[in-house]
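Comment on the following before class.
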Amino acid sequence: MTQPGDEEADLRHWLIDYLVTNVGCSPEDVDVDKPFNELGVGSRDGVVLAGELSELLGRSVSPVDIWQNPNVNGLARALTHPDAEAMQSGESSPVSLSEPIAIIGLGCRFPGDVNSSDALWDFIAARRSAVTTVPEDRWQAFDDGSAQTAQALAGTTRWGSFLSDVAGFDAEFFGITPREADYIDPQQRLVLEVTVEALEHAGIPTESVQRSQTGVFLGACVSEYGFLASRDLSQVDAWTGTGGALSIIANRLSYFLDARGPSLTIDTACSSSLVAIHLACQSLRTGQSELAIAGGVNLLLSPVVTRSFDQAEAMSPTGACHAFDAAADGFVRGEGCGVAVLKRLS
């Protein structure tokens, strides 16, 4: 009699043999935790594989099962333990729409070398300011050498709050190839790193989020990197679209975590992060999410938006915000990323 554990192992071996025989993988390249797409399994292959599995198991297997379980281990486990899978990914019953929400973890990356919630508290308590002038090389890509452009750049407000490093990224940690990483908006990279830190702060291992009803709600409003990366048409490749899309900021995080809750990038301009938190709380209270990752990200990679605000006389020429004060003369743009991990208080 075949034991449940043996059944899963048998299906795992069958899948490996199938990939070697039909997709052309070499046995040593088949990592059971590696996404199918990285093993060369395309959309058409997935449909064929679903048909083969249906015949093998004597029940219907949908291509959706493959997209939701995108590696050998995950698919073998899901197909041999369907009841457990349904319990884990099924929606919970609605709870009180007024239930308090608990903040169980925080992560941040802000100017002034503020890389934790404790550092942020100390920074604010000390009444420090992170406002500086734009880094020397930040706007170089926009200087075409013409006198007209030089004049426009010279007349653009240079005050702002800037991160010390927007290029650094541990692509290998997130299972991303160096080539793809080059095309990924640094805002996506920041969200990945800061979310891992927020989950660590909450005491939640990232692998425990897999296949859970975890929602991702992130505020963002500008994708300047997508424009910068696509100006030279000859350099556009398969990664350019997803690398620069605003929607992928949330989706890439959900994909990395293998989270099964809502995945939204929210753009309501200056209120984007606030609305993201609001939607995350709603999702928790309705039972749509059991855990929520909410926050926002912003980078100032281009002078375009700042110059536009200059023309509207919205930017402070003194580099200081005097909100609700008679001395108010505009605001100062800033960059960074903040993430909160949320749960229902109960």
In short: The chain is about 40% helix and 10% strand. The first strand starts at residue 101 and ends at 109. The radius of gyration is 24 Å.
